[in-house]
Amino acid sequence: MRYIVSPEKDGIQYGDYLAALDGFRDDLPEEVAKFAADEERFTLSNAKSLHDAWIERIEVTESRSTTETPSEIRITLTLLGQMYDRRVILTYENVTSYAITGGNNRSATTDTLHGDIFTHEVRPAEGGRVTHEIAIGDDGCLEVTCRTFNVEDRLN
Description:
Blueprint: H1 14-24, H2 30-36, E1 54-63, E2 72-80, E3 86-101, E4 117-125, E5 129-136, E6 140-155
């Protein structure tokens, strides 16, 4: 995390993140910029927030290259919303890199490797790409760099 979490400050620094976002918003695809600035996706007690959502599924698919098209990776992340009333589905297109780190989840009341999402941030990456980083549990992280992504809420 570069903006929303700081080693010099405690907790989530949403104001710092928004200030940074103002400086790079035009470098993000329109739909990603809208998601990145959507306060509901960060508010601690909003049903649409990623905070306190649980990872249910991470799916990585790769198409095979042909003479006309190169290989392409897509990641679909399915989260159970913090109020258990929806699935939040993030679909990352044309992925160029990703990392998934599970960690000891000492703070959870249930025994899970991933635990609840703490926070997340969106930022531009090289070559017109975008990075979405998600802090999970105590030590976990999911970071995806891609061309674009979209989000869908499916009510249960």
